[in-house]
Amino acid sequence: MGFLTFKKGIHPNDKKDLSMHKAIQDLIPKGNLVFPMQQHIGAPCDPLVKKGDKVLMNQKIGESKAFVSASIYSSISGTVVDVAPRLHSNGTMVLSIIIENDNSYEESNTMIPHSDYEKLSKDELVTIVKEAGIVGMGGAGFPTHIKLTPPAEKTIDSIIINASECEPYLTCDYRLMLEKPNEIVGGLKIILQMFPDATGYIGVEDNKPDAIEAMKKASANINNIQVTPLITKYPQGAEKQLIYSITGREVPSGKLPADASCIVQNVGSAFEIYNAVVNGKPLTERVLTVTGEAIKEPLNLRVKFGTSIEEVIEAAGGFKETPVKVISGGPLMGTTLSSLNIPVIKGTSGVLCLTKEQTKLEEESSCIRCGKCMGVCPMNLNPTKLNSLVLRSKYDDFEKYHGMDCIECGCCSYGCPAKRHLTQTCREGKRTVNINRRKK
Amino acid sequence: MYTVSSSPHIKSNDSVQGIMRDVIIALIPATFAGIYFFGMQAFLVTLVSVLSCIAAEALWQKLAHRKNTIGDLSAVVTGLLLAFNLPAAVPLWLPAIGGFFAIIIVKQFFGGIGQNIINPALAARAFLLASWPVHMTNFTVDGVSSATVLAILKTGGDKLPSLMNVFIGNVGGCIGETSVLALLIGGAYLIYRKVISWHIPVAYIGSVFILTFILGRSGLMTGNALYEICAGGLILGAIYMATDYSTSPMTKKGQLVFGLGCGILTTIIRLYGGYAEGVSYAILIMSLFVPFIDKFTALRVFGEVK
């Protein structure tokens, strides 16, 4: 059994009480919906519809022939009004399909429900997951079917459901565990059917005791599923740290979880796997948390993809005061949005609006070598060293000092008394090294 | 248009100023002890030292067209530590020169805060000791010349003060070094506030304790180890100077190596060297090895395959 935690990390104020007691509500979209053709890691999708086409809810509108990609479905029925680049939450213009909602929600039944999924083979299940366009729902958006098809020579003995939700403020996974525990456990059962020799683990931080209870209750009579309470510490939900906490294994540098015989899936992904296999529903909506000190009534919403962030914020009562930052995701790893006219996509786990008080925009000062960054880095790196190497463009040394192992969790910048942009420079260093590698 | 920036978007409340403020708070008991035992002259020396460090930093940054950083309070810490390393009877121009030397030559010439390779206060003390040895070794208690405990231990002569007096600080010595009690109170505060960790002080004081007991001043296994660690500047050096971030290793393992090295050098100088006290030179020498110590005690990266 595992150690239930990892080494180092930080303890930020979790601020989850802002939204944790609000049951998930459905948001009915009002305006046009925007579907970017890139909502995942991998190749972008090609649009399957053109301007003027009628589309149905759950109809596939984007697809790619590449293996690493995930199909995109319409979350409503209506008419395609444009296929053009639109602002994406990653800050760039991405080709998007814009659909006018006819408010009839007329469904297309492209996928078949399988309440008797026990009879399906592994390949059939993977095909359904791929077809449904499911990606990692934690935020990164890696296509789920690829995680479920590790190379044949790797033995998988642990399927881990990442239910730690270690980012402060976010409560969507927590609500999902309270409200849909059987579906989540059902999703894990489906994965375990693909890997019959593996054990399933559901890792939940111990600041959510009722979620732990709910998961335990839902998996009570299942021998190969264990609920593992984890010590509350950021970044407990980082893939490598979670694997270490539960199994005691370290994923070797530069390798994948399968190299430690593990597959990790987010709670939301497990839920969507169940939804796709048993209910025959493709991925068209998700639960997200609208929160932060700038929001009037923080809450958890089930939002159809394509809905604008502006409508999402309106549903939470709008702004209490003008935010300085609007963030897609959590405060430690989320990305800032320049505008509210950006659609919710598969990876939007939260809309976090922070005021001046929380987002301290302080000036950098010199490193005083206090070593705090080294003391919190869960990867045991030396962030201040990496920072100075990147600032001097010494990318070879950046690699030598294991800069590529950085998981960009943000712990170093969080703790730095000199307010140095440590995470930012590591991110920049990794990006530059990757670009140089591709050039070779 | 909202602010766009790289994550993370929240930060802890820690700041450089906050750390330096904690160090200043930790030095307050020893400052009062110094003034109590050595009188108003000790207060004036401390004041001149602190003001000269602040003035030197402000002046240098003005001349060099650099951002003024006296607000980070690091110059105040250097000024206090420099005064702590001076006898109370020195003329007041001495701390003034020392402050300028510490800040401009040792700190700013090397790039300012965090960049200096040796501790500014200690380097200034070494400079002053080499330049004005008479002033720098004129120790008085209640206006009467009084040899330091270590000098008595080394050369004999006067009667040794009691361990109790050595512990509370009623003996000859520099302004801030004599009161072990006051220094330990401040040290406990720094560890409680997580400004420093126990590694360097424990490794340093511990190694001096063990080595002076084993080697002894009158033969093997004869050392009065408890008395030796309370005498001189060891406690001041181990808690406040050897733990200087800029000039000590960043890894815990490295800090243990550093503390051990300081302890060995201090013991050798005290027992066999020409000087009665070896703390300053031990720390200065070990600081020069910090890049090597950091290199050889680098952490094993998570998932690293050797």
Tell me what you see in this structure:
The complex is a heterodimer of chains A (440) and B (306). Chain A is built from 13 helices and 17 strands. By secondary structure, chain A is an alpha/beta fold. Among the domains of chain A are: 114-279, 3-Layer(aba) Sandwich (Rossmann fold), CATH 3.40.50; 372-439, no CATH class. The longest helix of chain A is centred in the C-terminal third of the chain and has 18 residues, at 422-439. By secondary structure, chain B is mainly α. In chain B, strands 1-2 form a two-stranded antiparallel ribbon. In chain B, a hairpin with a 2-residue loop joins β1 (140-141) and β2. The longest helix of chain B is centred in the first third of the chain and has 24 residues, at 40-63. Chain B starts with 15 loop residues before the first helix and ends in a 10-residue tail after the last helix. The model of chain B has no long low-confidence stretch (mean pLDDT 94). At the A-B interface, β15, β16, α12 and α13 of A face α1 of B.
Output the keywords.
heterodimer; A: 440 residues; Rossmann fold; B: 306 residues; mainly alpha; Ammonium transporter fold; two-stranded antiparallel ribbon; 15 helices
How many individual domains of chain B? Answer: 1
CATH topology of chain B: Ammonium transporter fold
Largest sheet of chain A: 6 strands, mixed
Percentage of residues in helical conformation of chain A: 25-40%
The percent of residues in helical segments of chain B reads 55-70%
Number of strands of chain A: 17
Outline the low-pLDDT stretches of chain B: none
Structural class of chain A: alpha/beta
Tell me the structural class of chain B: mainly alpha
How much of the sequence lies in strands of chain A comes to: 15-25%
Low-confidence stretches of chain A: none
Rounded to an integer in angstroms, the radius of gyration calculated over CA atoms of chain A is 21 Å
Q: Give the SSE string of chain A.
A: EEEEEEEEHHEHHEHEHEHEEHEEEHHHHH
Widest beta sheet: strand line-up of chain A: 1-14-13-17-15-16
Strand order of the largest sheet of chain B: 1-2
Counted by DSSP, the helix tally of chain B is 15
Q: Number of DSSP helices of chain A? A: 13
